[in-house]
Amino acid sequence: MAKSQYSFKTAVELSKALHNKQVSAVELAQDAIGRIERHDGKVNAVCVRDFERGLAAARAADAAIARGEHKPLLGIPMTVKESFNVAGLPTTWGFPPQKDFVPAEDALSITRVKDAGGVILGKTNVPVALADWQSYNEIYGTTNNPYDLGRTPGGSSGGSSAALAAGYGALSLGSDIGGSLRVPGFHCGIYAHKPTFDLLASRGHTAPPAPPLIYERDLAVIGPMARGAADLSLLLDVM
Description:
Blueprint: H1 11-19, H2 25-43, E1 46-49, H3 51-66, E2 77-81, H4 108-115, E3 119-124, E4 136-137, E5 141-142, H5 158-165, E6 171-176, H6 182-188, E7 191-192, E8 221-226, H7 229-238
Parallel strand pairs: 2-3, 2-6
Antiparallel strand pairs: 1-3, 4-5, 6-8, 7-8
Helix pairs in contact: 2-3, 5-6
């Protein structure tokens, strides 16, 4: 059950509430963090937590809103797939030998999300090499479907789909070659979009320990995930 009326709102709805001063970005971040702390022991969607920096971003968003600033994702709590480089956090792609790999710079899409005011609270689980329609690896274990813990949330962006379904933020970033955005979407009843090839910049979405160059494998794309269809367009434009 949601402790806040905003736990399962869309990003468009949250943005409106933020700018109408009905809720603060810190309150939204704290609600999502609270849900992760209460429920993720069973769901295991958020494999890397980044709460301290997320709350700092939320405080900065509240200050920006108070100054009258408008940005597409300002104050919106969200997660990102583990495969995206986020400076200071591990990027493993589920490979045990890479469990200690920590990139020095954000992926370009992460930079764009942060510049748009997004509040990133953590990274979500994946299968090894992003190569399965479930989300298990030896580093972080198995992600379960929030609607039925005995079932999978899909893959390879299953951690993100489970996080969205469980109310751990309104948006997430995923990726797809043969269904890795779309399969988790229908497994968890959320929205995901596989964009046109090469429409979104993939720099920094690269298997470790490779340098964060553009990833040009045929059919491989990054894309937005959300609880509402309109949010996909919002995040797609930012990315």
